[in-house]
Amino acid sequence: MSAKERKIPAPAVYPETQAFWDAAVHGKLLVKRCAACGEHHHYPRSICPFCASERTEWREASGSGTIYSYSVMRRAEVPYVIAYVTLDEGVTMMTNIVDCDPDAVRIGQRVKVTFVPSDGGPPVPMFAPA
Amino acid sequence: MSLKGKACIAGVYEHPTRKAADKSVFQLHAEVAKGALEDAGLSIQDVDGYFCAGDAPGLGPINMVDYLGLKVRHVDSTETGGSSYLIHVSHAAQAIAAGKCKVALITLAGRPRADGMATGTAPRVWGATPDVPFEFPFGPVTVNLYAMAAMRHMHEFGTTSEQLAWIRVAASHHAQHNPNAVAREVVTVEDVVESPLIADPLHRLDCCVISDGGGAIVVTRPEIAKSLKRPVVEVLGAGEAPKGQNGGKINLTYTAAAWSGPRAFEEAGVTPADIRYVSIYDSFTITVLLALEDLGFCAKGEGGRFVAEGNLISGVGKLPFNTDGGGLCNNHPANRGGLTKVVEAVRQLRGEAHPAVQVKNCDLALAHGTGGSLGTRHCSATLILGRGA
């Protein structure tokens, strides 16, 4: 299995999340942090979902995380691994696990971000075994 | 204000079809509306409140009220996916209690099977929602999202595929008695775990059927229900709760049933130990397991052991569930199993379930729905219903 063989739908880019996708082009993973309450959140919003402050700021994430859960999608033209990865910053994001044997993926496994081209849009953050 | 004693379910109907190639969605809505009103002994002229969700074409009540020829003074199109119809019963009871209507009609219909829809495995989006760009590129479909909830439960609590399979086994034991069920054959744990993996750890037999048809419910004032010829079923308590990703602090080991359940029990003034029969939304086996734990029928993490003791099988276990065969074996019309959950609970309370699965002295039942996706965002709805005096 390779993510490169699967057509990755392009994410829609909104003004609120433009910076996330601009950074993705440069291989950087951003997360939002609220300057008022100190919490990170994902998916990114302009207004903090924890305290409703508008003082949310983009931070570059380390790009390292741990698999929270996953599933190998067998009933697909090209089987793939969907997963939730908990970043070291504390937020959990939906992604794919790539560059690995799907049958060897495990919860708790350490992974590192890698950006994969989408079909006509910015690259999207996937993860590979660290 | 409590809902207890304010409204009754006077009529229910489940369309007998499971493949409706020769009927439109709106025609099915009309047929189930007629069926539930006939069951109640009421007519279309009696209806003054109408409820529908996203399966109704167009702008919901605007199009359907016109098509059905209703004259209503109250409408509600609350849309929470497959749990919508349990919420409609609650909202209808609230509207009746507030004097906004007296006879509320709820309809559901659809034909995904005739349309050849790959319900669980095809990518779908529900409009330009804020989450789509951060999820859709990664191939979320219905089944792999529920699968991630199952995978995490297995990791934290040691739940096994064999334990999950017992939920399908129990449903199949009930479905054998339902001539309308899509899957009537009794299956074993081995049959389930040896069926093809769709999205690890969920197998084909962990997934519900795809079927056409629908159903309808009539909710009315207690004095109207008591004037009719059918056994009275009272709405005793209701709870509804959405659960999302909590800003990225995701926990897939519990559902919003942990909130909707206690609200419903508190309103009804009963506990899980009092319940004689449960209809639990069963889009997948894991949907049932999580709901059983969150509703308090067993401790968190104990769901696997609870179901593997055969507790869900009528006449065998202590918590008979989905005696029509549920979504897993009988019917999942329009990809939305909430309405049929209420229908079978009403059959049980009336003593009108199939004799082979009828629960003895069934005076208190719970119906529970899970709409949306357990793996991302969903809405739980719980109803507690009682046999009237």
Topology:
The complex is a heterodimer of chains A (130) and B (389).
Chain A: H1 18-25, E1 30-34, E2 40-41, E3 56-60, E4 64-73, E5 80-87, E6 92-97, E7 110-116, E8 124-129
Chain B: E1 8-14, H1 25-40, E2 49-51, H2 61-68, E3 74-76, H3 84-97, E4 103-110, H4 142-157, H5 161-175, H6 189-193, E5 197-199, E6 202-203, E7 213-220, H7 222-227, E8 233-243, H8 257-268, E9 277-280, H9 285-294, H10 303-308, H11 326-330, H12 338-350, E10 364-372, E11 378-387
Parallel strand pairs in B: 2-3, 2-4, 9-10
Antiparallel strand pairs in B: 1-7, 1-8, 4-7, 5-6, 8-11, 10-11
Helix pairs in contact in B: 5-9, 8-9
Detailed description of the structure:
The complex is a heterodimer of chains A (130) and B (389). With 130 residues, chain A is mostly beta strands. Chain A has one domain (13-129). Helices cover 6% and strands 38% of the residues of chain A. Chain A is built from one helix and eight strands; from the N terminus they run H-E-E-E-E-E-E-E-E. Chain A has one helix at 18-25, and strands at residues 30-34, 40-41, 56-60, 64-73, 80-87, 92-97, 110-116, 124-129. Chain A has a five-stranded antiparallel β-sheet with strand order 6-5-4-7-8. In chain A, strands 2-1-3 form a three-stranded antiparallel β-sheet. In chain A, a hairpin with a 6-residue loop joins strand 4 (64-73) and strand 5 (80-87). Chain B is an alpha/beta fold and 389 residues long. Chain B has a single domain, classed as 3-Layer(aba) Sandwich (Peroxisomal Thiolase, Chain A, domain 1). Helices cover 32% and strands 17% of the residues of chain B. In chain B, strands 3-2-4-7-1-8-11-10-9 form a nine-stranded mixed β-sheet, sandwiched between helices. In chain B, strands 5-6 form a two-stranded antiparallel sheet. In chain B, helix 2 (61-68) links the parallel strand 2 (49-51) and strand 3 (74-76). In chain B, helix 5 (161-175) packs across helix 9 and helix 8 crosses helix 9 (285-294). Chain B is globular and about 55 Å long. Chain B starts with 7 loop residues before the first strand and ends with a strand.
